[in-house]
Request: fold
Amino acid sequence: MAGSRLRQKALAVLALVALVGCPSDDVSVFGLKLAERKLSNGLKLLAIQQPDSPIVSYQTWFHVGSADEVPGQSGLAHLFEHLYFKGNGELESRGAEVSAYTTRDFTVFHQQFSPELLPRVMEAEAKRLAGMELDEKTVEAEKWVIFEERLLRLESAPEVRLQEALWSHAFERHPYSWPVIGIPQDLAQVSVETARAFFEEYYRPSNASIVIVGPDAPEEILARLESAYGSLPKKSAPRRLHFVEPEQKEERRFKIQDPSLSATRLGIAFPIPSAHEADAYALDVLAQILFDSESSRAQRRLVQEKPLALSVSGAAYTPGQPGLFLVTAVLRKDVNTGDFESEVQKLFEDVATQGVSTEEIQSAVKLLTLQLMESARSPFGLGQFIGTVQTLFDEPKRFVQDLRRYQAVTQSDVQRVAAKYFGLNRRTVVVMTR
Amino acid sequence: MKKMNWLILVLLSVVFCSEQPLAIEVLPAPVERLPLLELILHVQGAGYRQDPPGRSGTAALLRAVLDQGELARKCESLGAVRSSDLDADGMTFRIQGFAEDREALVQLLWSWVFAPSVLQPGTPIAAAQDLLVERYSHLTDDPESWALSVLNARVWRGTTGARGPISSAAELKAVTQGELKAFHARHLRAAHSKLWVLGNADALEPVRAQIQQLESGLPSAVDEGTQAKKITLRSAPVAHTAAEPELLDRKAAGPALVYWGSRLARPMAKEVAAFWVANALLGEGSASRLVRRVRDGGAMAYAVQSGFQFQQEGWVWTVSAAAPAQTALPLLKRLKAAVAELRRGPIESGEFRVAQESALGKLKLLRSNPRAWVYRGIDIPEVESLLAEIPKVRIEDVLRALNRAWGDAHPAVVIVGDAAAIRKGVKESAHAAAN
Reply:
């Protein structure tokens, strides 16, 4: 259940304000009122009413992910996701959908259910946050589950392994270098004491947000949430680790051999800034123009016009801390990997030297808007992007400014980021072949 | 492992055999304030089951060729996206954009499906053929897709459903431009289609009017030689398959994937709710029998579940699980034991009520997502009907469903993983048992 949702955040903000255009002191989302409150113990509450929704989406967000792990304890955040998630069986047996995931920056638990189950869920979730019993047997059993999950989700999927290899080699010191699911040797050594300490440090009200999207009035929801969670004790904000990744000055190249593969995969990563930086917006637009559509430049040149790749994709991953622009492809038979790398590099160079057209920018911004509107259509999707903005920026109203930043992306911005971030000396190349 | 969706259970009552003009239905989006419009067109009878003899892959190639040309660029200039799908029984085309571009979106959809410029004489298809053939040749890189395609072939042996989208690279390469055009003329017909309009309800009437106008431009007299036959929904007899598991050797670090599928004839409408509850009882969710016996109780598999796959000819009920290769065959034995135990009964009333409530709750969640239904060609009244029927299901109905599916159908088993390790695990466990 690991994976970065941060790019979604960056795009979601665009969709919101495009529709609403509301004054910043009266926040509404698609015309639906967003009510928020911060309890004295630091817990943030956010409720959005969808009067015609027959279901409720209940999301608990913790600002902790693999970026908060120290070397030797990789996978701890994800392990805790599993531990914290246990005990949802009764709710699931009543027809609720329950799930959770961990990213590099946050951990999310979410349930969807009929509104009549809301009081039961609220009570159970508040109790869970108040404290949990952990014993060695439970921790060890869950480690087994994660080892199996790792085999299934990572080792069985060449594309996932390629992505993990790119993150691993593009970062040398930062926790982003290890997979969210963790390194098996690290995970094997996690003790019940370590797990308890992790819970105490990060699973506290001041490090969490509750987001609810459903048919009930938001003020009423907030009052009920305050009643359920208000008595939890206040604790200070958790410690934050700060790793500074040294600047990459030389190209890095790696090869993975896998006899089970029949097609060669190739991945290229370039370091880019975090979601907090202004360039994140222009990078999203660049990714859209080059890779992220049916008639993108890469699709046309590398798949349709020249028989170089069976598929190609590219995206700007701008998490809470500096991220990566990733390009991955499945190559056609007998294609030289160096030739393909050159073609990809030429895509960036063309933008850096010749720019993009106004039509390309307009189309890209419209497509980004559509994608995000679509993702926020359901109660779950709407809650996801409000939770992301809240957790990363502590500003649920941030999208008002963010929209303007997207709309303000110019041809020269796109040209500038293409020239700035995609030099040969900045790239990490991973070839995965038979 | 992809989650097989039991939602398709209710597809049985969808009848597409009408020769009436295009039927348009509207399903309001959950958030009506969104200025989006989505058009989903099902063309029934245009699936790979209709590939001509000796021309496996014709439908798949047609779908790929239809995606070519300038439509993508026109679509994206509107900020719209599109996608298409192919299954045994039909093709689905989807286009989504901004509501203000309604007229252009309808026109794009129509040109894409019913009036494609890419089928003009002389349009090259070799590049699309090469691309499809090469993608097909790498099927083994994705163990799940590989296993499911082999399971599909085994379960549907003896029927046209067994061939899959592509079953022969040579046959695909032999398809000509003329044959594609003939397939299009014969099977991609408005009269076999349904169009769903998702968005603000105000969009319905303008879309209907525009479609009717476009329809009037189609040839009124259909050549008997090219008109597709009326689709029949009868169930084919269940083919017997070998009981021995088929091992697909894949030397990789990942786990072995076990798929155990049972084909059954289409249930009657009144039986659907019983199958829905039976699946909740068997392998859907953490309270199900398989999860409790195999994952929680047996610690044999991280992922274990059950679900349905559907074709017009019938259903496939599949149990799937992932485990280390050495334990794949013992896992299969455990899965079979759990199913046998459930079939024998008795089913305790508390466990049954949990399954019933779970099935009902999940159905309510799905009712809230119109697209989930539309993609499967289901109408909301059918969902409502199922919601009403589930509380009436009795334990004996569920036992009957379970025994019908897993009793006489001679299920097929496919395991993908390191074959040597899978066999070694059996020897080791036999050796351990002997000692």
